[in-house]
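Async update (no meeting this week)

Hi team, since we skipped the sync, here's where things stand on the single-chain job. The sequence we agreed to prioritize is pasted below, unchanged from the tracker. I ran it this morning and attached the output directly underneath so nobody has to dig for it. Comments welcome in thread, and please keep replies under the output.
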Amino acid sequence: MRILVINPGSTSTKMAVYKNEKPILLHNITHSAEELAPYDAITEQQDFRRQLVLDELKRSDIPLDFDAVIGRGGLVKPISGGVYEINDQMVEDTLHGCVMHNHACNLGCLIAHEIAASIPGCRAFIADPGVVDELSPLARISGSPLMPRICIWHALNQRAIARRYARGIGRNYEDLNLIICHLGGGISVAAHDHGWAVDANNALDGEGPFSPERAGSLPAADLIRLCFSGKYTEKELLKRIAGKAGLAAHLGTNSMREVLERIKKGDEHAKLIVDAMLYHTAKQIAAEGAVLCGQIDAILLTGGMAHSDYIVSELRRRIGFLAPVYVFPGEDEMEALALNALAVLQGKREAKKYE
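Output:
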């Protein structure tokens, strides 16, 4: 089975070609600010990024002949986890239902659908998008009926890491209670109860710990006053939630590598801000322990920041008493997408219908 994988990010488009479980091409196409400047909305970049993928396939002498194309899922309607066949409703919702969430992941579905449609017999999928919602009824209720809790989180990577951990200990993911923390540009923490993510934070829109570029939870009354202060437009304030927030707001950069280098050179303010981020992250992890009533098989740390010994050791110091802590640095999204598509093609898993 030949599978094309497409994973768009804010400044790059990762692509891969798999033959069954084996990658035969892994490539990261970077996009400069100048290249992306002409596009007001993320979805306007569809043709530009699709052509770059096709150009790379041609450059690598890989024919446009695939059994499936799978893209990183976008921020569509909340759905349960799994693999979904891309249909017209999903495309419509991605194009017109995601205006509140102008995120690059929305391009994964659109590009996969378009490329697959040009190949006879080729199927198009997404898997475990960030809007996977398996929250328990209690988790959905906030202090205002006007604003029920939703989750936008790193579902794809968290599930991939959970399954990898389970395989490594000879268990099934569905038999375990896990707390998983993805440490990236946003930080998501989820409680996985026997294969269901029954609680997770909204790591994009402002909930949970702050991160390199997200504000996390903010004092609600102060935020309302700021909205009516006349100092900022709606667009500017949304950037203060996701984009120009977190470390980027406090320290002027979202580069964890740069910040850690500043700490190494004695920057006490940078150390204070990073330690505060880890403090709030540890609090969020501990809170998910209450969701699982203390029955925790393991805590898994993943994402780009999990490469840092400083970050991992500080989190271990604060949460190690809850359960054994295991570290899976980086992300496993490309392989996870490919294997999800392969499982459907081989009849081991059924693709769900998006409605």
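Quick observations from my side:
The first helix runs from residue 33 to 36.
DSSP finds 13 helices and twelve strands in the chain.
Reply here if anything looks off.
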